[in-house]
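Work Package 3 (structural annotation) set out to generate three-dimensional models for the target panel prioritized at the project kickoff. During this period the team completed the workflow that converts sequence records into discrete structure tokens, so that structures can be stored uniformly alongside our sequence database. As a representative example, we reproduce one entry of 265 residues exactly as it appears in the project archive.
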Amino acid sequence: MSGRRLIITLTNPIPPEAELSKDSVARKLRDSSSIFKDGVFFTGSENNGGNAVGALYPLLHLNMDKPTIKTLLERPKKFIKSIGIGSFNYGMVQGVFTELEQILVTKERQPVFETNAIVLLGCKVMESGSRTAKSLEKYWKAWTNINLLKTFILQAKIEVQNISFLRQTSPGNNKMFMYIMLMNVKVEDYNQEMSILDGLQKMRGSIVACYAALYKVSGDLSRSKSEESMENLIEVVSGGTEKSRRRRSKKESRSERRSKSVNTL
């Protein structure tokens, strides 16, 4: 599973004067840049982070389009720092990340991923080759206490599907996290969402020392403008077989795509 690359974008807080919802901003961003036409938008479940380290990023976007990744790696100036929409400027941090390790949590023998939410943990390290960075890469599970967070979520009867550990490959932006962990979960209802948020509030700044936030697949953007690219994201990231893809397709047809689920790393 390791070695996969993806573009991760996190947007700065939305200006209050804009009076736009997170989903509305996601729609406008998708129409403003080719990077956002592919991939998946997620919206943050919280408007403020309480005891989080710094402000929370309201929107998360994941994109695994290989030509776009190649362009960004070859031409780092193409990374987006901000986009003007109407009279407002929306700042963001963006980077290409490489997956160093993936942990399969679900006990299903042939899992069909139906992730509809992500718990994102982010750590900033000033120098990627420093002793601190090397220690984090080697002992990331212990350093981040992600297993304690995983246990809390599992005890709340919430399905955790997999966990990915990623390192920023480019552009080496100190404003962006050097390391990101994506815990993919399936949230069934509002109570489960609140349980995860309760756990994050209890653990932030103490047990979990890095940035930690819950993101849900953006409701009205669960299907991108290019449905084929969305399916490609699901297929590539899950690493599923042709058989599992057919099984998933049949399942979606039976349920008439009622679920707003999307698989991620």
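The chain has one domain: 5-254.
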